[in-house]
Amino acid sequence: MDRTIDHVAFGGLDLDTLRDAAADVGLTPTYGGEHATGTTHMAIVPFPDGSYLELIAPTPGTKPANAGFWPTHLAEDAGPAAWCLDVPDVRASAKAAIDAGVAIDGPHEAARERPDGRLVEWDMCFEGTDLRLPFNIRDRTPRSYRVRRTSDATLQGIQTVVIATADREETADLFAQRHRYPTPIDANGPFPHFSVIPGTPIALCEAAEGWLEDRVSSVGEGPCAFLLGVSDIEQARESLSLGPENHYDDRRMAWFDHDLFHRRLGVVERV
């Protein structure tokens, strides 16, 4: 299967707040418009490899609980909500999920209208009974309508999605069942009880106590942090506001230096 991340969704109560926080740390979000449901709108931070960070919040006047996408995460101002893979055929991917014994929600047709009036359309399908697995997307309009690559190479793309789970072994089995991902390897990382799945963009952390346990109780198992790839931490600091250096296996990483992003959005040196 394709193990390249299309985009990740970072949700909150107010899009302007998310955009301001992103700008404060050196990111450049562009308003992407309102989804066809009329209940959410979003902004995009694009990367050179074609992936992007989606900032998403309820539209003005919409209660977070009524949002069309990830209402629990938006209501809780939870940040990381979901991650997405681009697939050649959403229906074929949905059938593969069913064949693997995984429940699906979709395929669905979806759209949003950009500020310039252009309609962006795609098909999508969600998998599983929670948000550990990625949802799948396939553009019906040209992908350049949805996102344009940036030429700024400071951030190279989405490097890692960290999944918070109540049971790492059970979650590893789920990824093996659905995507044939290999066995995770314990690693030195930014969270306790941490492991990486070799050859994939996925890391797992077990929510055994503290704020991670509270998060899983509040919004369920699923992404708790996104790491963006950089070639060198010190070089990245020249244009990005980053906190203290941490370790991710044998590489260096740092969280963005903003309360909204601490332990939720950071950078890691690429291998």
From TrEMBL:
Protein origin, superkingdom: Archaea
UniProt domain Glyoxalase-like: residue ranges: 5-176
Pfam family, one: Glyoxalase_3
Gene3D superfamilies: 2,3-Dihydroxybiphenyl 1,2-Dioxygenase, domain 1
InterPro entries xrefs: Glyas_Bleomycin-R_OHBP_Dase, Glyoxalase-like_dom
Stored PANTHER family: BLL2707 PROTEIN, GLYOXALASE-LIKE DOMAIN-CONTAINING PROTEIN
Listed name of the protein: VOC family protein
